[in-house]
Design goal:
By secondary structure, the protein is of the alpha+beta class. The protein has 2 domains: 3-50, no CATH class; 65-211, Glucose Permease (Domain IIA) (Distorted Sandwich), CATH 2.70.70.10. Helices cover 18% and strands 35% of the residues. The protein contains 3 helices and 14 strands. It has helices at 15-31, 34-50, 128-131; strands spanning 65-67, 72-82, 85-94, 101-103, 108-116, 134-141, 146-153, 161-162, 169-170, 175-178, 182-189, 193-194, 201-202, 208-211. The strands form 3 sheets. An 8-stranded antiparallel β-sheet has the order 9-5-6-7-11-3-2-13, with no helix packed on it. A 3-stranded antiparallel β-sheet has the order 1-14-12, with no helix packed on it. The longest helix has 17 residues, at 15-31. The protein is elongated. The model has no long low-confidence stretch (mean pLDDT 90).
């Protein structure tokens, strides 16, 4: 099953581990080993939270709106230079308790992407940008506007999951990946108007973070 069609309340990525933990929880419940029952019950509950997969629908109807690809808290909004182009940089941090599914920011086509498998260092570590798992994706809108999204994984036993193909088309809010815990950076063109500030809480597939061609 592709992640785009992963519409159950629990993501298919969590089925196996949930099943194993559920079986162990039932086993220790029946044997009366309450300490292990508690441990595996807590682990099962944590996994169910991490891999929950709710439906999301944006109320935004404007075609130039850019929707957040990730749940979390906006850490910063600043200007940046990418390939000699001035862009607006929106940084979002998501925790293990946020919804982990990544979603397309608008009706778009995948211009290109790169995935680097690596370590899972804490993001304050000076080598995290160099060594941690990272995915960089370029999305192009129907009008030709291009945005870049960078997902960097932090300390987690769950790797980044990205299911994309070059030139693949997505509808706004369609699932394209999984990030249990980490930092996501969304680069908008200079002509875009950013509509969030540092400290704002955003939800993937629902929260508008900016508008293209609005500067």
């Amino acid at each position: 099953m592709s992640i785009q069609n992963d519409t159950f309340i629990l993501s298919n990525r969590g089925w196996l581990i949930s099943g194993v933990l559920g079986a162990l929880f039932l086993f220790f419940s029946m044997t009366g080993l309450h300490l292990f029952q508690f441990i595996f019950g807590a682990l099962l509950l944590s996994v169910l939270i991490i891999f929950r997969n709710p439906e999301r629908n944006t109320s935004e109807t404007e075609s130039d709106a850019v929707i957040s690809s990730v749940d979390g808290i906006v850490l910063s909004v600043e200007e940046s230079i990418v390939d000699d182009q001035k862009m607006s940089k929106v940084t979002v941090m998501n925790s293990l308790w946020d919804v982990s599914m990544l979603r397309a920011p608008f009706d778009c086509e995948v211009e290109g992407f790169k995935i680097r498998h690596g370590a899972s260092l804490p993001l304050y570590h000076p080598l995290s940008d160099t060594l941690n798992e990272k995915a960089v994706i370029s999305f192009r809108s129907k009008k030709g506007d291009e945005i870049y999204i960078e997902h960097l994984s932090e300390q987690s036993c769950f790797p980044i999951g990205i299911e994309l193909e070059k030139s693949q088309k997505f509808k706004e809010g369609t699932r394209y990946g999984f990030l249990a815990k980490g930092r996501s950076v969304i680069y908008l063109p200079a002509s875009a108007r950013v509509s969030v500030n540092a400290g704002a809480s955003v939800r993937a597939g629902e929260s508008v973070i900016g508008y293209l061609n609005a500067a």
